[in-house]
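Input sequence (102 aa), recorded before submission:
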Amino acid sequence: MKNIQVIDRANNCTYIIFAATGEEFESIFLNGTDVEFVEDFVERAGDETASQITGELWKRPVRKDAVQGIHGTLFYQLIQKKQYYPTKKESEMVPLGADRTP
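Predicted structure, token format:
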């Protein structure tokens, strides 16, 4: 199982972590990425498949004190943050204020 931290735009968001099967994880995070935006995932997978996969995730929350690594971050309704993750890899995040011109 791989752990996915879900971050949404709610002011009271608790950044819950969910356990994903390898297949679920690979469906959400493509080609070695570890950041995804739910809007992109739904567009790519389709409403039905995305709902099915996330519905299974919601059944498997992981207590933070039991987590052994976070393997991916899934943003909900935070598409404005996409500019900071052009490659969808956290290790290649563009910091605030950084020059993003080639």
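Checked by second reader. The chain has a mean pLDDT of 91.
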